[in-house]
């Protein structure tokens, strides 16, 4: 789970001058809604969402599917030599270029 990995990295870097807020990206608007919501869901979803919500220093944002390196092969693209795979989206290094936050609705 991304949130576990991100917080483990923060713990390993404890004491070093690193950001205390972690930004995680996903292309699922449904999952973003679940994470940002405080409702009760079925057990499988509920357990995972509650785990994610226990990390207040993690900010979740939406990445368009076309900019998601994890989706390259599912869209028929190859990972080998793909700049998106090796470097991420071009806008990632500049927060002023980040995609706008999406508004989710029930």
Protein architecture, described:
- This protein has one domain.
- Helix content is 33%, strand content 9%.
- The protein has four helices and two strands.
- Strands 1-2 form a two-stranded parallel ribbon.
- The longest helix is centred in the first third of the chain and has 11 residues, at 2-12.
- The protein is globular and about 40 Å long.
- It starts with a helix and ends in a 19-residue tail after the last helix.
Provide the descriptors you would attach to this structure in a database record:
106 residues; alpha+beta; two-stranded parallel sheet; 4 helices; 2 strands
Task: Give the secondary structure arrangement, pairings included.
Layout: H1 2-12, E1 22-26, H2 29-36, H3 43-53, E2 58-62, H4 83-87
Parallel strand pairs: 1-2
Number of helices: 4
Order of helices and strands: HEHHEH
The fraction of residues assigned to DSSP E strands is 5-15%
Percent helix among the residues?
25-40%
Supply Rg. 15 Å
Give unreliable regions as ranges: none
Assign an overall shape: globular
How many separate domains make up the residues?
A: 1
Q: How many strands, which pairing sense, and closed or not: the largest β-sheet?
A: 2 strands, parallel
What's the number of extended β-strand segments? 2
| Mean pLDDT across residues | 86
